[in-house]
Write the C-alpha cells for this entry.
Amino acid sequence: MTPVPWRDPALPAAARVDDLLSRMTLEEKTAQLYGVWVGADTDGGGVAPHQHDMTSDYDWDELIALGLGQITRSYGTAPVDPDLGARALARAQRRIAAAGRFGIPAVAHEECLAGFTAWRATAYPVPLAWGASFDPELVERMARRIGQDLRSAGVHQGLAPVLDVVRDPRWGRVEETIGEDPYLVGTIGTAYVRGLESAGVVATLKHFAGYAASAGARNLAPVRAGVREFADVTLPPFEMALREGGARSVMAAYTETDGVPASADPGLLTRLLREEWEFTGTVVSDYFGIGFLQTLHRVAGTPAEAAHAALLAGIDVELPTLKCYGEPLLEAVRAGEVPPELVDRAARRVLLQKCELGLLDEDWTPEPAAPVDLDSAGNRAVARRLAEESVVLLDNPDGLLPLSPDTRIAVVGPRADDALAMLGCYSFPSHVLPHHPGVPTGVEVPTVLESLRAELPDAKVTFAEGCDTSGPGTAGFEEAVARAAEADVCVAVLGDRAGLFGRGTSGEGCDATDLNLPGVQADLLDALVATGVPVVLVLLTGRPYALGRWQGRLGAAVQAFFPGEEGGPAVAGVLSGRVNPSGRLPVSVPRLPGGQPWTYLQPPLGLAGEVSNLDPTPLYAFGHGRSYTTFAWEDRTGGDAPVELATDGSYDVSLTVRNTGDREGAEVVQLYLHDPVASVTRPDVRLIGYQRVELAPGAAARVTFRFHADLSAFTDRTGARVVEPGALELRLAASSADVRHTVRLLLTGPTRTPGADRRLRCGTEVSAAE
C-alpha cells in the first residue's frame, strides 16, 4: 500500500511537509509552534524570574489533541533517574502521537551547556574552560558524547553552545562563554556544534545576538554596541558555527540593541540570518522571550501583539511553554490581525526539522534502545582530559610547583572541599538541585582537598576553610593562618560559587559590581601571604578576577574555570606535576578590579596612554599560560622585507616548535593580526589562528598557518565588509602580549568586498621536524 505523501520517506522532505501542511488546520499548525514545560512551577518558586508570570496551568489531554511542537526539559526540571526518565518521555511521546490526527511526536529539548543538564549525567568543564584548552578536536569529542547521551534518552535538540563574546567580565554569564575573542569562540563553538550534530542532535546557537554586550554587565540590560562591534565581534562566531558547523537552530537573545529587541528584529532574524546567511533551520525564543516583548521591552501591548512581532521577525518556536503562540495568536489570526502566512512559514520550518529527525516516519519509535547511562567511564575520561588541558598556570616564578611529594601542605579556602566548586551554573547540581534539598549530587565530584590527598599520599595535608565564599565573616581566619604557619606550603583554593539570579557569585543573573574576589577571600589571601609561608593560589571561578594586589607575593598561581566533575583530580595533577599545565587564558586577567570593562580587543584609544591615570593593561594577557617544560620557536618563514600579497591572495607562515625541556608538554602557537593603518580604527591585535602542539622532550614540529587576505576583512564606514590594501603584520605569539616573531605583509590591488564564501578560519598544518 502506498503511504500518503507526507509519510513517504522516499519523497524529498520539502514535498512531504508541503503535503502535510495542506491537510492541517490553523489550530494544528499553531500547535507545532510552541513547547510545553511539564512540571514547571507556577507559584513563584521556579528556577528563573518571571517563570510564574509566564507559565499557566492547562489541560494536557486537551492540549495535545492538536499536536505539540516541543517538550521542555523533562530531565532538567527535577531529579529523575535517567532510565525512568527515558521511559516516561517515551510514554509522553506515545500519548502525543496517539492524540493528534497525524500522529506527530514532539521535539524534546534539554540544556547541554556543560553536559546534559540531567541528574546523574556527566558534568563537563564549562565553556570558558573549553576556550582555555585551545583544543577544538577535544571539544568536538566531548560534544559528540553529550549528543549521544541526549539521543539515548530520547532528546532531539540541545540548547548549546553559547557563542556570546565576553565584552565585560563582570557579567555573570562569562562562565557560559568561550572567551573574549570571536575567533576563539567561533572555532571552539563550531567544534562543539559539529560534535553535537554528528550524534543526530540539533545544536542551538545562543544567544543571537549581542547578549554579552549588555550595558554595565547587567544581565538582560540594553545593548549599546555600535555597528562595527556588532558585525566584527558579535556576529562572526554565529556565522562560522552555521556555515562550517551546520547548526540547525538559533535562539533569539533576550536583549535589545539600539532600541530593537532581538526577538522582534526581522533585520537580524530574517534578512541577515535567512537571506544573507541562507540559514534554513529553526529559530526558537529564549525562555519567555516572546512574552517579554510585552512585559519587559514594552514594544507590544498584548500577548497577541508580541506573537505577531516575533513571528514577523522570524521566531518559529515559543519556548519554554505556550503563552503567546497559543490562543492569543489563534484569535489574532482569526481576526485578521496576523497574516496566516506567518504561521505557515514557521510551521513549515518546524515540520521540516521534524522530518529530518525522522519524527514523521511511520517506523519512528520513542523507546530507548538500551539502559541509559549518562556518566560512563568514557565520558569521565573525556571530562578528565578536558579539565587537565584547561588548567592555566598563571605564574610559577621560583619553581615552587610541582609540589614535593612528601611536603607539609596547608590547604585553605572555601572552595577547597566543596564539590560544587567544580561546577558551573548550568550543571544539574548547581542549576536544579538547590530546589531539591537532600537529593544527592548524582555523580562523583572529588574536591581539590580529596584529590590532593590522593595525588600526594606521602604529604602531610591539613585543611581549614578560612571563610565563606561570599559572606563577610572572618572568624575562620585564625585557624587558617595557624594551619598555614605550620606548613611548608599553603595552597589557597578560592573562587566562585555558581548559582542563578543572585544565588551565587557567578552564573546567570549573578553579575559583579567589580572584579574583586567575592566576600572576604582577598583578605584571607592577604593573611595567608603575611605568614611568610609560600602560597600557591588556586582559583576555581567562572570569570577572571583582579590579581594585581598579589603580584610578586605568591609562590605560584593556578586558574581553573569550573573544570567539571573531574576538575579536582585535574587541578591536583597540575599541583603534583603529574599533569604538565597547558591551558591558555581565554580572557585577560586584570591587574586592578576597576577600570572595566576591558578585553584585549582594543583600538589605540583603548590602550594605556598619557591621557588617563587608569592603566587597563592586564596582569596576564589573553592567551597567556605557563608550562613545566620549555619551548624554542625556530626557523620561521619570511624575512625583514614585506611580502607582497594581493587583496585576494594567501601566504603560508611557518615555524618550528621544539620542546627543549625534560618532560612532555603542549605549546599553543597563536597567530595575531596587526593592521597599522585602516579606514576605521582597528584592534591593536586580534587572534586569527592558533595551533596546540604536543611534544615529547627534545621533539620538534613544524607548524604552518595558511593565511588568506579574507582574514584581514573588517566592516568599513559604509557597513560593507572589506579587505583593504596596505601594510599588515602577522605576529606569531605565545599570548596577545608575548610576540615571538613578526611577518610583514603588503596587500596590493583594489579594496575588495569578499562574498559569502570568504575564508572564516586560518588553516593549520603540523608536520614532523628534525
Remarks:
- Residues 82-99 form the longest helix (18 residues).
